[in-house]
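Model: You mentioned two targets. I'll fold them one after the other.
Researcher: Yes, keep them separate.
Model: Target one:
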Amino acid sequence: MTKTEIANAFSNGEFEKTNPFISENAVWTVVEEDSFNGRLAILAQCEQISNYFKSVTTDFKTQHIITEGNKVVINGTAVFSRDDKRISFVSACDIYEFDDNNQIITITSYCIQKK
């Protein structure tokens, strides 16, 4: 997978595809919420998110993908619904930094939930 494909899959919750591309010392910062240090912590968080995604219907829309060198930026929206009722709407921007082996070394996520 290319850096852009890896980042896009992660941003769209396709974590199983991206697991091999997360470096051992990667850091995922969800701004104003939490930080996950190391591959195992990131994988554990991805598992929790995946379990939530199984309980809802998700509609991800990617708006922009910007790639330059070892960095990829993706922004978009996500609608989460259950029983045909919207329960959440999120606007998000994820910034990925990769090493020279296509391994993610940092992710910075900005998630704004509509009230």
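Model: Target two:
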Amino acid sequence: MARVTEPSVVADPKVIAGLDAYQALPAAQQPTWYSQEALELSRKELSVLPPLVFAGEVDRLRDRLAQAASGNAFLLQGGDCAETFADATADRIRNRVKTLLQMSVVLMYGSSLPVIKMGRMAGQFAKPRSNNDETRNGVTLPAYRGDAVNGYDFTAESRLNDPKRLVQAYHTSASTLNLVRAFTTGGFADLRSVHDWNKGFTDNPANARYESLAKEIDRAISFMESAGVNFDGLSSTEFYVSHEGLLFDYDRPLTRIDSRTGTPYVTSGHFIWIGERTRQLDGAHVDFLSRVRNPIGVKLGPTTQPQDVRDLIEKLDPEREPGRLTFITRMGAGKIREEMPKLVEAVKGTGANPLWITDPMHGNGITTKNGYKSRRFDDVMDEVRGFFEVHKAAGTFPGGIHIELTGDD
């Protein structure tokens, strides 16, 4: 039975005061809402809605991440750069889940390790931005900050920072999670269906390689079935959801007190990460997430200093709890072999054992001639190789990969 995390649980006033201490600290990347009254109504509504995830699920994920940090599992985290309300359809959600299942089975078969599957899903509706505003042809409007804040279309109506979108983000996340749970526990994730996951990708050059691997898995399963092995464990899989903990007006109202332990959990997602632009040690994001029980990730870019890593450990993982803290490196292919070893070495001697995963997407961005942001596949792969090389040289574990992906062909 899932442990209940509800706003009705009587909480220690000191716990609540600690959770809200972030309000006195600098908070980067927060939108300016068009109406404070509308914001308070949305926050109040979110505060009484059911949790999207449960404390027991979060605790189980923390145990899984501890296994990965010790080299006994591997984390695959992937999904959209930012989800949109329009794309939260059954077909698109299924295709994203299917892509992650395909990737996980390749990783699992090649590494002989359990693969923890985690989507950038059911909550990734906000984006950090370099500027608050965007100007086109002499017209200045608020920058698009994700569907939880405003719309993508460059019109005054669309770009209004509307707090009612926070509630819409909750309901879209709830329907997404409902489908994800159905897909991953209702037979769709059955390892005996590896061929079905590849249907519709006939023109993809990776198709032949994947089909070859799927046939090998089929042969292995057929052999074990003939030997009388019980395959109940193959019919479903654990699947977790994550998002960047960017908007306090979304995550704070959805923070609940566990009915068993009296400790706070952010119930908008299992795993919450702090971005490169919001990881200031004296800032609101680090303070708030230091006080919740969820496993926490932190993005580390090429300017990160060894002392930054040590300070983040002290703030976010003072008890040195296995599975609590994940460092997500996003260095860029040209810098990872030079910058990352210093950070890995900085952890040694702290008593911490964070999970290290690589984000090879965000450090390798380019802008094409027609203005689209993209990455070169060779750069992405080179950063992944560099990540593994650094850990091999340091004697530490490369524990996972964090990527943006599409479920489309």
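Researcher: Noted. Anything on target two?
Model: The CA atoms of residues 338 and 390 lie 9 Å apart.
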